[in-house]
Batch of 2 targets.
Target 1
Amino acid sequence: MSDIEKLLDYFDLEVLEHNLFRGQSLDIGTGRIFGGQALAQALKAAYLTTTDQNVHSLHAYFLREGDCNKPVIYQVERARDGRTFSNRRISAIQNGKPILILSCSFQKFEIGFEHQKTMPDVPMPEALTEKTLIPGDKIKHLSPRMRRTLTTQGPFEFRFVNDVDPFDEQPKEPIKRIWFRTRSTLPEDQSIHRTLLTFVSDFHLVSTATLPHGISYLDPQLQFASLDHAMWFHRPLKIDDWLLYDCDSPSASEARGFATGHVFDKNGILVASTAQQGLMRLWSKNS
């Protein structure tokens, strides 16, 4: 099996009962459930209760840390089924408590007015090379688990427009631009492409808020965790072809960092937008 097939296996949820599903947990090396996994599995659970519609928006709150050694139960509430729009509310549950709640809306395809934000002027992915996120001389300082997380290729290929060393303590403009795609081709099924985009959208986004402050999101003194996540799907997309993730952080305040993202295809078409807020709490060495 390819890496992308292995990942898609985690979205093949077990049906337990009407509106009740179980998903196995993926360990990406952090010791806790990756937020993108919970988002994508919750979305897949909602997809399993709809027909002939695709997700156009989702809004989620991360409530508790998930245990990657245990499965997650997804309970779907069918809030509304309409001729054009349908709405779902999903609770992701471990140990009898919700770790994530997600609301999402589905729509049948329609033709309507069109306008969009312009894609930034950046090098195309063919002009860039794939690099490890961590410079070679820094990898040895990581724990074995984090070393595996940050150096393993995985199912997605990333090419960074602006190289960002997460250990560099020089303040920078809060912008990240990253080309990405799956390493394998996928079926022509928008539910697959949108679910995978939901998964990968949790990479690199809210860490953009750390850049102006000269602090690494890998710093053990930084308590860093996602609080909420939102997505809007504007147009059909293909995640097995290059997409540009244009991330910026307009604000950090009250121990929270906020970031937004726009996802463009190679032709400059805006296919999705994201927003995320995360806890950014720096503990002092004496606390």
Target 2
Amino acid sequence: MKSSKKRAQSKKELLIKQVLSRGTVDVIERTHLEHALSGNKKLRVKLGIDPTSPDLHIGTAVVLRKLKQFQDLGHKVVLIIGDFTAQIGDPSDQKTERRAISKKEIVSNMKNYLSQAGKVIDLGKTEVRYNSEWLNVGAEELLALTKVATINQVSERADFRARIKRGERVSLMEAFYSLLQGYDSVKIKADVEIGGTDQLLNLLMGRQVQQNFGMKKQDILTVPLLEGTDGVRKMSKSYNNYIGINAAPKDMFGKVMSIKDALIPVYFTLCTDVPEKEILKMERDMKSGRLNPRDAKIRLAREIVLLYHGERKAASAENEFVNVFTKKKLPKKISIKLVDKRKLGIVGLLVASGTAKSNSEARRLIEQGGVRVDDMRIIDPKKDIKILPQGVLLQVGRRKFVKVKYKK
């Protein structure tokens, strides 16, 4: 009995260490939070996500995975879908004023949010709230909220200051965003709030708002922003450098394989459950030349696909990748696209096959040398392609294969 209690205590201590240390940047009131996690009180741990796009990606999953760690320790996680605040748009780290999103767009974006989040956290143990429940406030409540912060404080934000210096707009609505996010913490009685490092000012405002309403201030924990597949900017749909949680296994695998080698340890730490000791060893072995980064990346891709699609599909995606890109074999499944002309210009063929969204994108792909027809590289955007009776095999980039046939 004693040994089982010791094992349980040891497991809890390890989980607490992971919560506070693995993939974390800021921990505000660390000593207090560590003490609270070691105690028996069930904490209310808050994460807010604005439905500004329909897809969650593995960058979003970094903070969801941190939320899951609190859940594994037995605490109550509260996922707030910011259907009200999404209408304003979080100004954090924005170089320009955000485009307003309509309620119709927000409703559409929210449709699959929970099913995607449910691939990371246990929705059955999650309190899901929508901040439109309480943010349709009256004038009296709104005025009470405005007393929390000052114009001086808001204008000191680096992102606002830079825009003001350039003579660009900073709307009062944007200035209100952090107050409204802080009010969420009041309404759900948050003990802890987590978010990306870009959210730190908003999370700190939550402490200020709570104090103004006579509440105990929440502790704060932030996680790094995952760099996207371009290796330059944070992962974002707007930069088209993201790996969606709902991406097909082979697409997810292929996109992970496209990241820069320098990001391998970061992705292992933030996106997988591989022990940190193993990650450090892989990092040392890659630096010394004992481990080929490509082999480390294959394991990384397999680990990530496994988390979202299971072991069988992860193994299948790996086999597909190795066959296509190492053994130079064709994918097992190639989609077929029917066209109504026997001859098409290569630009028109790319658009008709769905491998390019526009003529300009098609020309760019051709000029970059990423287009092949029946394994012959096409570099002339004006070239005509004859659709043979058996069809032609169109390859765009490393992963897109389409069989184009004439529709009789």
